[in-house]
Structure formats: C-alpha cells, structure tokens
Amino acid sequence: MNFKEELLNAHKRILPYIHQTPVLTSHLLNDLAGAELFFKCENFQKMGAFKMRGAANAILQLSGAQKLKGVVTHSSGNFAQAVSLAAKSCGIKAYIVMPKNAPKVKKEAVIGYGGIVIESESTPVAREQKAEEVVNETGATFIHPSNDIPVIIGQGTATMELLNLHPNLNFVLAPVGGGGLIAGTALAAHYFGKNCQTIAGEPLKVNDAYRSFKSGVIESNESTNTIADGLRTQLGTNNFPIIQKYVSDIICVSEPEIIEAMKLIWERLKIVVEPSSAVAFAAVLHDKIRFKNKKIGIILSGGNVDLANLPF
Amino acid sequence: MNFKEELLNAHKRILPYIHQTPVLTSHLLNDLAGAELFFKCENFQKMGAFKMRGAANAILQLSGAQKLKGVVTHSSGNFAQAVSLAAKSCGIKAYIVMPKNAPKVKKEAVIGYGGIVIESESTPVAREQKAEEVVNETGATFIHPSNDIPVIIGQGTATMELLNLHPNLNFVLAPVGGGGLIAGTALAAHYFGKNCQTIAGEPLKVNDAYRSFKSGVIESNESTNTIADGLRTQLGTNNFPIIQKYVSDIICVSEPEIIEAMKLIWERLKIVVEPSSAVAFAAVLHDKIRFKNKKIGIILSGGNVDLANLPF
A272–B266: do the CB atoms touch at under 8 Å? Predict the structure, then answer.
C-alpha cells in the first residue's frame, strides 16, 4: 500500500466533513518545557476528537451498496460519536454496540449524533459478538475503532495539517491507546516531515503498548486503572507493525504527571482537553533533556470530559 | 472627544502588544439559543483577559517623562496582571496595590509579569489611599481599572475586531462590572456596527449597574456574593454616562444561570472561561425571545480561573 498517496487522498476526501483544527502555542509552556511546542487542537474537531477523521475516511470509502446497509462499531467513547456523526453526514445508518452499563450521557450523545444504540453485556467478547450479530442481521459494514487501515490513515491527517503549517518539527508526540492515532501520526511524520521522529506517550498504568514495543508481540493490560480513559485499549494487528516500523519510542508517564500536564494545558492554553490528550505533553515534560530546544508537535486528541468528574 | 477616531488610533497603538483573538461558533449552542452566536475569545488574550487592551492603551499614551516614573493601580484581579505585563512590554515600572489578604497565587502572577506588589489593608478606601501614597512617593501615574477613558477605549477594540469579521451583528453582549468593558463595547458597536445594539449581562446578586441604569445615579452593591468575581465592582463617573447613552439594556442573571452558561461554554466550545465571561451568554439564554434568529456577538472576557475551585 502506498501510504503517502493514501494520506493525501484521505485528507482531500474528509476535508468537507472535518475542521482543520488550529495550532496553539504558549511562551510560558515553551519556557517550562525548554522546547518549542505546537499543540494541534483536535479537541476543537467535530464531535470533539480526532476520531472524526478516521471514521469519516472509512465511511467515505464504502461502496454504494455498503452505504445502503450502514455501518457498525463497538465503542463507548469518542469513536461511537465519530461514527454516528460521520455516518449521519453521509446519510447512512450507524449501529453502535455499547455496554448496557455505559453512562446514559454517552448513549445520549451517540443518539444525538444520529447513531442507533445496540446494548450488549460489558465484556469485550460480548461486545464483539453483538457487533457480529448486527453485521449478520443487517449486512452493515464493521469499522474497528483503531485497527482498520482507513481509520489509521484518517487519524494521520491531523499530523499532515500540523506539518503543513510547521514543516520543520523535530518530533511529533501523540498518545497511544488502541494504536490508530499513533500509527497514523507516525506515517504522516514519516512521509511529510523532515526527519521528524514520532514518539508516543502512554500511561504507565496501562503500558501495554510500551511492553509490546519492547517484546515484539502485542501485550495486554491487567487493569484499566488510569484517568486517561481513552487509552485503556490495546494495539491491533494492523497498527502494531506500523508502530514497530515508524514510531521511535514510547514514553510512560504516571497519573500525577498526566493530571499536572492537563492542568497546565487548561490553565495556560485556556482550552478544555480530556486526560488522554495530556499524556503526550506529559511525556515531553517527563524527558526534558531529550526534547531540549527542539521543535515539537503535540497532538491534543480530544476535549470530551465530564466536568462533574475532574481530577482537580 | 471623537470616540471613533480614538478607537481607531487605540487599535493601531496596541496591536503589537495584544493578540487579535479568535471568534468561535457552535451549531449546538446556536440551536440551544435559537440565534447565531459569535464568541469573541478574550480568554485567549495576553495574560488571559481583555484587560490587556485597556492597560496597553493607557500606558502607551503616557509621555516620556511619565513613563520614566512608572504606573500604579489597585487591583487584585486581571487588571493587576494586565498593567504589569503592559508596563513590562514598554519597559516601565508598575506598582500594583493589592490587599494583604489577596491569594498568594495572584500576587505571584503579578510578580511573574514584572509588577511590584505593594500591600494594603483590604478595604476599598485603604487601597485607594495606598495607591495615592505610591503616586506621591514615586510620581507614578495612576491608572484606574475601569474608569479612565484610555482604558475604556482600549477595551472597545475587542468589539471592533469582532465587527470587522462580522459586520452585521444585531447585538453585542458583554458583562458589566466596573463598566470599562461595556462602555468601550458600546462605543465600538455604535461607531462600527450597523444598528448593532449593546446589551450588558450582570449577576443579579451584584446588580448595581442595572439599578444605576434605571435610577440614573451610580448605585452600590451591599454584598459581593457572586461567583462572577470580576463583576463585583461598581460603575465610574466616566463610564456611566457612556453606558447611559450607548447601552440598550442590562439583563440580570442568577448564579445557576451563570454556572450553566459557563458549563455549556466549557463543554461545547472546549475552552476555559472564567465565570464573569459566562454572564453575557447567560443573558442571551435568559431572554431567548428577544434574541430569536438574531446575529449576536458575545465578548468572553477572560479565562483566568482557579481550577481547584470550580462550580461543577
């Protein structure tokens, strides 16, 4: 597959369906980090997260026959909303498998974007089975939140936009959870940067990607006990080889480091980002020596937070 | 005084010292309000609030002899930081009279921007006396946070920028506290809008401006018990006549209305604004019938909040 061409085509394809989000800077945060930081604000993306890019890119490539039957995914987070909104924008149905015990507010958000909520038991296996059932019953096309190539490519377009504005970045950092964003980011940095290294930030408490990166096989997490709720998932068979090939390193950060980075972003950039978004910035602060005086792009992945449940 | 010319000159004068802040929109908030909303994001202004505009405009008009002796103001809020930063940008001294019991974080912020903190007792009278003492001792020029004409004119430049992008606004709304922002806003709307009405939002609990507007004399507040901590002050002799002449109405909003409006801005625009900033949007939601289908500019005045002390 010609990833460079795929990325270029994806960006053209999704442009009418996404925001070209702004890039923010802060003298104070630069001073604090000892580096020059460029924050790519996907919290301002449609539905509030980068996931819109990958969902739109996957849905827009369906055939007419596939579009008639709709799409299905399992997610209780941003990808559920992204698929719902992207499908609605294309006039097609979106079936979203969500665990019975998912918060009401998340189900309502999906319904608000036009998605059809299908309840399942809450185990990963039960959710996958239910999604399969929906595929069999409706003929809808299954879209994986982080492991489908069109999704991975779509997520990479955020970094393309960032490099278009700031072509000389030395590093681009993004959080790693399921692996779709970091794989897309790494491809974009490889094909559109000038020796731009991609580094992932990961919560120490769910550092399956770090361990996978070291061991060479996809590892799992035993607990999901991190505030960065978007990063509790594990890598997939499609994105892992891309990560192995194109990501330079994965930096693990503690929960207090994530919260401190999130607080700095809120206080200094005056923007609302979700905890997962703060992980990449936390990684920069964790390893200041490596990043000293470098130009660094940071993907702020999303801004969908529960204000009633903040860590400060 | 030719206010139109003053506004134009002020904008040119301060442009190297301020950010031309972005204007954000949201389909969802438009639907909720039943109107077309344009949020002027002064939370992204230097030091985090519109106050930078007025402080810069006042300081930049000082004579060379005045600049040598510096400036003095009394404020424990955004104006203290604004004067400190604007003075620093011009290479002059700023003496900031702050109550002894002001939070340490606020004193540190002023010092961080290069201001010299002078402590006083916490009553308004003691603060004014201390400022007078500093004037007598140092020869510094006193700048009032909301009642000096150059400050009022400087604050109006936010609305000039907004109308430059969106010339056909039917209304522009801003919060009213000391009266500097709303007076400047009203002048800008009068001279640069097309029949653009200026309306103030004010917390019901400190509605001195509303009562002054109705009675024709400057009224005071008996309590300062509102979450909108930037709006506890009262009108001044210079801004009140401007408000009487150019402001169409003042809408009072309750504390729950302010908190709800603030929450909507955080959740939907993904930006951090201080409670005072939410008052103008709360006023739009308070009187939906008046604003139905209108184009409305809303000045989001600032983003300096204490994250450890949020209302949700």
Answer: yes
